[in-house]
Amino acid sequence: MTNTRPRTSLLGAVAAAAAEAVNEALAAADARAMAAQAPGPAVARVPMPAHAPTPTAARKNAAGPLFGLLLRESGETLIDQIVRSVAARIDDRLLRGGARMPSIRAFAASHSVSAFTVVAAYDKLVATGYLESRRGAGFFVRERPAMALNANDGAPPLATPLRGMPSGFDHKPIDVVWLVRNMFRQMPHQQMPGSGVLPPEWLDGPAIANALRAVSRQNPNLLLSYGVPQGFLPLRQQLQHKLAELEIAAAPEQILTTAGVTQALDLVAREFTRPGDTIFVDDPAWFLMFGSFAALGAKVVGIPRLADGPDIARLAELAALHKPKLYIINSVLHNPSSTSLSAAKAFQVLRLSEEYDFLIVEDDIYCDLHPGSAVQPATRLAALDQLQRVIYLGGFSKTMAANLRVGYIATSVERAERLADRKMLSTLTTSDIGERVVYKVLSEGSYRKHADRVRARLDGIRAKTLRQMERVGLKVDGSPPAGMFVWADAGCDTNLLTERAMAHNLLLAPGSLFSPKQLPSTRMRLNVAAMQEPAVWRFLERELGRS
Predict the structure, then answer these.
(1) Which residues pair with 301 in a beta bridge?
(2) Residues forming a β-bridge with 489
(3) Which of 472, 475, 481, 484 is nearest to 530 (CA)?
(4) What span, in angstroms and rounded, lies between the C-alpha atoms of 7 and 268?
(5) Which stretch of DSSP H or E encloses residue 426?
(6) Which residues of 197-216 are buried (b: 16+ CB within 10 A; e: fewer)?
C-alpha cells in the first residue's frame, strides 16, 4: 500500500517529536538534579507559564519555541533575531551564567529553523561574549562580570567640575585636545554648534551603503590583502579627472592616497621638515595641526589671515626672519572664516615661496562646498603653480563620509615617491576597502548632485542664521557667501563662554584654539549647519545679554 502522506507533515512530526524528546530529557535532568540537591549547570529554558501543557499534552502538540517566535518577514535575519533574543534574556538575567543552552538540533527543531542558522547565531553569541563553547558538552551562558561604564568609575574625581557641568564632558582645561575629545563624544549634532562637520542627515548615507554592497560583491581575495602604498589605482585615475576640472594637471603617479587630510599633513611634515625647522600656518587656522607639528619638534608660526588671504607684508617679514620649510594654507573656504584667496594674493604667495625657498601645502578639504568663482572669487595655488612648489591636499570627510578616512596628496612625481615611501614605513598602506567605496561613489556620478544639494542647503539657512547671530549680539565681519563656518566675535572671552555652554550640554569652539599662540580671544567658530537648535540661541541670547 502506497503511503500518500505529505512529506512536509512527516518532517513536521519528526521535528516535533525531536523537540519533545529534548524537552522531556531536559526536564528529567532538572528533576534529577533537584532530587540529588547537587550543584550543576542549569539548562537555559524560559520558565513555563502556569497554564503550560503537561508532558502528556505536549506529545499531542508541536514543541513551542524556547526563545520566542521568529518572524520571516521582519527585515531582520533569523540569525540576528536569535542573537538579539538570547542576548536580551542574558542581559535581563533570565538566563544565568553557567546555564546550558539547548543543543543545536533541539533549538533548530523547536524554532523550525536550520541547524546552520543556529550554529551561526551561537557563534555570534560566543564572539560577543554571551556564550562559551565547551568541547563535547555544548554551549553555555558565559559568566559575565559587571563592567564599569567608565574607566574612572569608583575612583575619586580628578577635579571638581563647574556647577551644572554635565558629567559626560571632559572637565580639563580648554585646549586643542579638549575640543577634539569632546567633538568625538556621542551627543546630538544639534548640541555642537562648534563642530567641524555637517549633520549626518545632510550626507548621502544610501550612496555609501550601495557602494559598500557593490564592493562586497567583488572578488573576496581583493578585500583580504594589503592595498598598495600609492593607493587604489582606479581611484587615483578618478582623482586625476577631478583635479583636471580644477585646472590642476596631475597624473596618477603624482597622486597618493592617505587616511584623510590629517595623515596627509603629518606625512608632508615628517618628510620635509626636521626638528627645529619652522612651519608657517594661517592665524587663525585649523587647530589640530599645531600640536601635531610641535610634537615633531617644529616651530609653528602664525601668518595673520585677512579677508582675501594672508597678510603679505607680514608673510614676507616673517619668511625673511624664520626661513620656513612649509606654509600650510586654506586657499578656498578657509577654516574658520570661510574666506577664499584672491588671485593677487595667490600670485604674491607663490613669489615669496620662491624667494625664500619654502614649499606651500594647500589644504583644499572644503573644495566641494565651494560654489565657484562666480559666487565667491577663489584661486587655487596648485592651479597657478601646477604642483611645482605646491603640494595639494584633498579629501572627502566633510562631504561624503568622515568614517571612510580617505584623503589624497597631489604633488610632483619625485615628492609623491618620497611620500609613498614615508607612508609605507609608517602605516604600510591605507584602507583599500574605503578607497574602493570612494571610487565607486565618485565614478557612479551621483556625488556631484549630492554636493550641489549640500551647497543649496547651506545657502538656504546661511542668511537667516547670520541675522539671528546679529540679533543675539554676535558680530560677523562680512557675510561669507559660501561654506559652513562663521568666524564670529562674541565681545567676551569665548573660553569662559565655552565653559558656561558646557553646563548646558552645548559644545562651542573658542577662538583661542585656532591660533598657534593659544591666547584668549573674543572670537569663536560657529557651524551654520549646527545652529538650528533653539536651545543654542536661547543660551547665546542669555549669555550675551541681548533681548
Answers:
(1) 280
(2) 475, 523
(3) 484
(4) 70
(5) helix 413-427
(6) bbbeebbbeebbebbbeebe
Following DSSP, what letter does each residue of 37-102 receive, concatenated?
T---PPB--PPPPTTPPPHHHHTTSPPPPSS----TTSSS-HHHHHHHHHHHHHHTTSS-TTPBPP
* Chain-centroid distance, C-alpha 216: 20
Res 37: pLDDT: 37
The kind and range of the H/E element at 442 are: helix 432-444
Grid cell, residue 515, equals 591660533
Coil, strand or helix at 485: strand
Inter-residue contact 285 to 302 (CB < 8 Å): yes
Closest among 547, 543, 546 to 492, alpha carbons compared:
543
How would DSSP label each residue in 272-301? H--TT-EEEEEES--THHHHHHHHTTPEEE
Q: In this structure, which amino acid lies at residue 526?
A: L
Select the highest-mean-pLDDT range: 46-60, 98-112, 297-311.
Answer: 297-311
Instruction: Yes or no: say if 419 and 268 are a contact pair by the CB < 8 Å rule.
Output: yes
Q: Whose grid coordinates read 545652529? A: 531
> Model confidence over 391-406: pLDDT tens digits?
999 999 999 998 899 9
pTM over 0.70: yes
What gap in Å lies between CA 239 and CA 234, rounded to an integer? 9
190: cell is: 544639534
Give every CB contact of residue 199 below 8 A, 6+ residues apart in sequence: 189, 190, 529, 530
Please state, in angstroms and rounded to a whole number, the distance separating the CA atoms of residues 525 and 514.
Answer: 9
- Mean pLDDT on 476-492: 93
Contact 257, 435 (CB under 8 A): yes
Cβ burial, residue 285 (10 Å; 0-12/13-18/19+): buried
Check if the beta carbon of residue 104 is closer than 8 Å to that of residue 118. yes
Residue type, 309: G
Query: How many Å apart are CA 269 and CA 522, to the nearest integer?
Result: 31
Give the least confident one: 73-87, 246-260, 444-458: 73-87
3-state secondary structure of 326: strand
For the chain, the average pLDDT equals: 84
Q: Look at residue 384 and give its three-state secondary structure.
A: helix
65: left (phi over 0), alpha (psi -120 to 50) or beta: beta
Indicate whether 171 pLDDT > 90: no
pLDDT at 467: 94
